Write a sequence for this structure.
């Protein structure tokens, strides 16, 4: 099948901002002067990581060539400044998280720069909660991303544990959910029932819900099948973490589909 080449355009990169992901990865984002590419108004595009920015020598204020990869995802192809354009200094990712101000570090074997704040970082905490209730994880009906965001903002849910105490705290620690705008007695009770329904969940769903880096749904199923119970999984990994010589570490590596 023949494909037409992606439509391209040139626009100015106003500034580069930083987004913090669920696992703490800092991602640079290009904020562009709006440009119409293939009938879609493009204003933002990911710049992936510092290596990519350095390779393409992208700086705030530059004029850049934009295309939508696969006619979907906006991407910055290269810098194309007009003659006489004065460039700004090279841009670098910060060494502190822009949300919680914890140190941001890069390990030798990775291109990603990560915030070390963990759950004290509000960006990470909120996104991890969204992941915890996502479809492959606990999949709580009526508790989607927007609800999590609202409850997190109102300091009602800060950790996964808080989800399972929501009904017990309703009307005590916060105004009854049934009295919130857009809620009623039926919708509140429906949510509480949905939470009760997932108090016992399959081990693979639970492992996936933890949001361990590089552990997706497939890896979670491999781990669950191998260890069988959460206690065995948890205790084995604690011992495996003690060093290369730990037999539990070799046991983990013996699982088909898991590498170092």
């Amino acid at each position: 099948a023949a494909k037409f080449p992606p439509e391209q355009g040139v626009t100015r990169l106003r500034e580069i901002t930083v987004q913090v992901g669920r696992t703490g990865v800092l991602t640079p984002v290009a904020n562009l002067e709006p440009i119409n590419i293939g009938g879609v108004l493009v204003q933002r595009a990911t710049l992936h990581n510092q290596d990519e920015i350095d390779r393409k020598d992208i700086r705030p204020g530059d004029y850049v060539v934009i295309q939508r990869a696969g006619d979907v995802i906006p991407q910055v192809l290269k810098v194309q400044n007009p003659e006489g354009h004065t460039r700004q200094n090279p841009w670098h990712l910060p060494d502190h998280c822009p949300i919680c101000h914890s140190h941001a570090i890069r390990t030798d074997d990775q291109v990603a720069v990560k915030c070390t704040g963990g759950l004290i970082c509000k960006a990470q905490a909120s996104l991890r909660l969204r992941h915890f209730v996502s479809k492959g994880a606990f999949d709580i009906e009526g508790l989607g991303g927007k609800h999590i965001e609202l409850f997190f903002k109102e300091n009602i849910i800060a950790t996964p544990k808080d989800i399972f105490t929501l009904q017990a705290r309703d009307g005590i620690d916060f105004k009854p959910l049934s009295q919130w705008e857009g809620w009623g007695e039926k919708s509140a009770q429906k949510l509480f029932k949905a939470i009760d329904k997932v108090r016992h969940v399959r081990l693979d769903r639970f492992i996936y819900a933890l949001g361990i880096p590089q552990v997706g749904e497939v890896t979670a199923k491999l781990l669950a099948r191998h260890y069988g119970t959460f206690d065995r999984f948890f205790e084995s990994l604690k011992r495996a973490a003690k060093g290369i010589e730990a037999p539990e570490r070799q046991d983990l590596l013996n699982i088909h589909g898991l590498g170092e």
